[in-house]
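Hi all, long-time lurker, first post. I run a small reading group and we've been trying to get comfortable going from sequence to structure in the token notation. Rather than ask abstract questions, I figured I'd post a concrete chain and ask someone more experienced to write out its structure so we can walk through it together at our next meeting. Sequence below, copied exactly:
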Amino acid sequence: EAVRRAEKGDKVVLARIETSPEDLRGMIAAEGILTSRGGVSSHAALVARQMGKVCVCGASGIHIDYQKRTLSANGTTLAQGDYISIDGTAGEVFAGEVTTAPSEIIQVLIDRSLDSKKSLTYREYDKLMKWADEFRTLGIRTNSDTPEQVANAIAFGAEGIGLCRTEHMFFEGNRIDAMRQMILAGTQQEREKALKKLLPYQREDFVGIFKALDGLPATIRFLDPPLHEFLPHDHEQQKELAEKIGVSVEKIARRVNELHEFNPMLGHRGCRLGVSYPEISEMQARAIFEAAAEVQASGTQVRPEIMIPLVGFPRELKLQIDIVNRVAGEVAKKKKTKFDYLVGTMIEIPRACLLADEIARDAQFFSFGTNDLTQTTLGMSRDDSGSFLPHYAELDIIDANPFASVDQRGVGKLMEMTRDLGRKTRPKIKLGICGEHGGDPNSVKFCHRLGLDYVSCSPFRIPIARLAAAQAAIAE
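-- Answer (accepted) --
Happy to help. Here is the structure in token form:
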């Protein structure tokens, strides 16, 4: 519905109880996003920051009724089509239309609708950012998944990609159908057939990203979410998919039930998928290196850094690295070229921190995925903690929301341990952070003190990170 109305020219606010990857098309079409569940690092918040969209998450006082297509709060009920306004900074929701004015900085850098010479605000911003870059020693990268997002990030001063989430690419256009066919496949042969359909899509995406980067490095994460997120759970949508791809609705329902997990965040996802289905990792590696070969042939340098997610056992990483290196060799030989690439891992579970010295034997870089590392260290869900964290702050149990600012005494100690153990094995190992903490000023300053090489955050938070990194350097 959001897509349909946006195509008609309407400005849309997408209201959901909570979002998932299958809502991505609606999120792209919407001007803003409102959810009644979730928090600062929920799916809606992460995607909205990346796209530079206004978002209010975890508005628990609002009741959203999908059947009636209404939302209610404080005795007021709004129906689909009514005007609503949201303030992502203050977390406020208003009935009716509120007058707004676009940012002059965005008009100059992103929309290119305003001449920089005509904006004093932009010129002062630009001077401040240049001063910041003179002092900071910490690299600033972006969490971006599309060429458009990369272009925005570079305009804001990004020096490469710190996290490219490949799963978001699968929701574009018809490629979701090929992805679903792969998930529904009963044999490896059927999976490989479906993956062959996905390969050109992924390759095309990477070509666009590598061209937009123009020689800057790109950390690309292999498939991370559990497979059930790609299948429809509603019976009507299952029926529609069955007719579209020529399988029975019973088969789809059965597969959805098979993939059901009681705790998917700690379930069959990340490198565990790559270990179970190595053909998925092979397809993604092939898409990356074929795209790199194509872009390099046009004279542009490509520097892929392939990141294996959710590693907790050194052997998991070794199995995935073997696939990457084999495919890189095959493509290099076929295309008569060479690749300048790294393979590393996302540090997001405590066991990886404890065994960082062993993991560093194979990993050429570590990137702290602090969203999940915070969850697994604190034993606390980022999507459910909003119901008690404010009370914890009132009682001085916590100083700040650990999903917004790094828990330096807990998660931070694990990060220090990982740094020390990793550099003991590999003294020049590259260290970065790609959780949303990379755009939080206090977290950026902590990363500077920790001696990381870079922080990575959503495109529209890059100026914050640049300024915080400079402040950290000056404070020393």
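A couple of things your group might point at:
The mean pLDDT is 94.
The CA atoms of residues 90 and 300 lie 43 Å apart.
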